[in-house]
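Section 4.2 – Deliverable D4.2 (structural model, holo form)

The reporting period included a commitment to supply a predicted holo structure for the target in complex with heme C. Inputs used:
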Amino acid sequence: MKISKYYILFFISLVLFLSTTAYLSKDKSYYVKKEMTVSDKKVYDNSKIIKFDHQLHIKDAGVKCEDCHTYAIESVSAKDNLNPKKKDCESCHDVKDTKQCNLCHYDNVYKKLKSSDRELVFSHKEHMKDQKCTDCHKGLDAVKFSGQGASSMPDMENCYSCHNNEKASNNCETCHSNLSNLTPVTHLKTNF
Ligand code: HEC
Ligand code: HEC
Ligand code: HEC
Ligand code: HEC
Ligand code: HEC
Ligand code: HEC
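Output (structure tokens):
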């Protein structure tokens, strides 16, 4: 009888121990996740709105990024929607022939392309003098949709080579318009 009491006691404390550590580590990962939402670096999923293939156009047909994303070079705000407009496809495709609509459109889906909200400060125009699109947007020549690439949108590391307080500023405020979600954990993690 006595021994089984100890067993029960041991069992209860084991459960307590496991659940508190589980809670703590869960809390931690939640903490990190929340901090990751500071700005959305992910692209908007337009794959249900338009049929498209980056690899085919870039690698096989040799089309340049700026032939479709015509406004990127001039953009001075991260709020701009830099997705292509229909006229950007017109130089190679017939967009008026009603038999051709289905080349690009799914049945009965005729919408404009959307882009994500970003809490970033960024001007393409200011960075295009000495950089190529693919310095920051990597691997699009190997995927159909931008969302399938692992680095379609630049990470913070892409900015370090110049934003090191020598060539250009590395104050958080330079690039982040909303600092309320930024925590010291990131300072450690990113070596800032
Ligand atoms: C120095 C890095 C850098 C270079 C070079 C660069 N970009 Fe970007 N690009 C970014 C960042 C950061 C964002 C996210 C902020 C924004 O939307 O402006 C972005 C966003 C975009 C977006 C998504 C915008 C939207 O929300 O609709 C497109 C499309 C894009 N870039 C295309 C291009 C093209 C095309 C070029 C070359 C002409 C280019 N970028 C060059 C850093 C860069
Ligand atoms: C510089 C020329 C050029 C431009 C600009 C261009 N395309 Fe294409 N596109 C091609 C070529 C070449 C092919 C392959 C041959 C074909 O199927 O006609 C192709 C094929 C396609 C296909 C069929 C893909 C497949 O898997 O068979 C789609 C969908 C498409 N393009 C969409 C677009 C959209 C949307 C735009 C504008 C945002 C665009 N293209 C702009 C040249 C271009
Ligand atoms: C070569 C690819 C391509 C073909 C072919 C094409 N479209 Fe589009 N269409 C697009 C793209 C890209 C957009 C998104 C434009 C934007 O976001 O501003 C679009 C957007 C639209 C929209 C919604 C946005 C707007 O401008 O009002 C309608 C409606 C539309 N297309 C109708 C058609 C019809 C009808 C046909 C056939 C006669 C057709 N399209 C053929 C690429 C194409
Ligand atoms: C032939 C036209 C075409 C070419 C060339 C092209 N793109 Fe795109 N791009 C598109 C279309 C259409 C979309 C929307 C579908 C998608 O997300 O893949 C898009 C989406 C994107 C997005 C996501 C935008 C957002 O707001 O979600 C980025 C980033 C991007 N392209 C970068 C590039 C870069 C960098 C290059 C050159 C290496 C390039 N693209 C070449 C047509 C093109
Ligand atoms: C090849 C070097 C280089 C890279 C890589 C680079 N930048 Fe810059 N950036 C500069 C220079 C040079 C300036 C202008 C100097 C200044 O104003 O501090 C600048 C200015 C800026 C500014 C305006 C600062 C101000 O005070 O007006 C912002 C915002 C910015 N960069 C964001 C970014 C982001 C975000 C990235 C990464 C996606 C990035 N930069 C990558 C060189 C670079
Ligand atoms: C030169 C521009 C630049 C500066 C300076 C900068 N960031 Fe970033 N940061 C970025 C870019 C670009 C991203 C990735 C795109 C996104 O998440 O919107 C990013 C993403 C982040 C993220 C999201 C998680 C991640 O790693 O993707 C956090 C958190 C963050 N930055 C914190 C900070 C803090 C804290 C500082 C100041 C110590 C800082 N940043 C300074 C450009 C910058």
